[in-house]
Every structure is written in structure tokens, then in C-alpha cells.
Design a protein that fits this description.
This protein is mainly α and 161 residues long. The protein has 7 helices and no strands. The chain has helices at 3-24, 33-60, 64-80, 93-100, 103-115, 127-130, 132-160. The longest helix has 29 residues, at 132-160.
């Protein structure tokens, strides 16, 4: 099976498991089918884009353990300095500015908006929080534009040497 297809199917399977678990514990969407599908599409696109960045980390790492550690050091702060766990309005000013422009915050706000769930970020005046779907798509495109060619180049260099 093609590596890209395998990555996509893995992300779809993980999303389905998370959605089903959420439904069991009481999460619901409050919009139409197309909006819900768009929400999952935004999440899957971002997941795909980030997989290229993580692939780059894996290609420059000395081994699997160091690759996982490097990815964790980068991805952990992105997830925690975002609006995924707490509204950014309650953060210190400098941290709030970082969180409001964090790609994870944009994707989280976009999913909340498309699923029709409460979105405390809608009250934030930063552009990504006012336009979370557009910001998510821009972040995903930017990440792909940088890391897909870079991962390809790193892979070619590594397999030729």
C-alpha cells in the first residue's frame, strides 16, 4: 500500500476512534453533515501536514528514540500553548499572543466552529481566531509547502548516501 494512503487511512481511523469515543461520553455536533465533514477534513489535512514535519524530524534524527524525543519537544508545547485545553483569554499577554496565532489553536477553533460546538476563541480579536477555517487551511498549506519538499530532499539524501 502507498505510504501516503497508509498515512491518510491511519489518520481517518484515529479520527473515527476519537469521534466514536466522544459520542459515547456525550459529545455531539450541532451542524449539518457537510459542516461536520468539513470539520473532519480540516483536522485530517492538518494531521497530514504535520506528518510531513514529523517525517523531517525522523529523517534527521540519529535513531527512533531521539526522533520521538525531538518531535515531542516540538509538538508538546504546540498542543499545550493553544486553545485546545483552556481559553486563551485567561493566559498572560505574551503567551496569549502566541496561543492565538498557534496553528493548533486555529485548527481547534475551526473544528469547534464547523461542529457547532462552543468556541470561546470566537471572542478573541486575533485574525486566526476570527477566521479559524481559513487560518487552518493557510497553516496546513504553509506546513506542507515547507516540509513536503524538505522531507523528500532529506529522504533522497539519506537513501543515496
Amino acid at each position: 500500500m502507498n505510504g501516503e494512503l497508509r498515512k491518510a487511512l491511519t489518520a481517518v481511523l484515529c479520527s473515527a476512534i476519537v469521534a466514536l469515543t466522544g459520542l459515547v461520553v456525550g459529545w455531539r455536533t450541532h451542524t449539518g453533515v457537510w459542516s461536520v465533514l468539513a470539520g473532519f477534513a480540516v483536522l485530517l489535512l492538518f494531521s497530514y501536514a504535520v506528518s510531513w514535519a514529523v517525517g523531517c524530524i525522523g529523517l534527521v534524527a540519529k535513531g527512533p528514540e531521539s526522533g520521538m524525543s525531538m518531535a515531542f519537544i516540538i509538538l508538546f508545547p504546540m498542543a499545550f500553548v493553544s486553545n485546545a485545553m483552556v481559553a486563551t483569554q485567561h493566559m498572560p499577554t505574551a503567551l496569549r499572543a502566541i496561543a492565538d496565532w498557534n496553528p493548533v489553536s486555529a485548527v481547534t477553533a475551526a473544528a469547534r466552529q464547523l461542529f457547532g460546538n462552543p468556541n470561546p476563541s470566537a471572542a478573541v480579536h486575533a485574525w486566526p481566531m476570527q477566521h479559524p477555517v481559513e487560518a487552518s487551511l493557510l497553516w496546513s498549506a504553509a506546513i506542507l509547502a515547507v516540509f513536503a519538499p524538505l522531507a523528500t530532499r532529506l529522504f533522497r539524501r539519506r537513501t543515496v548516501e
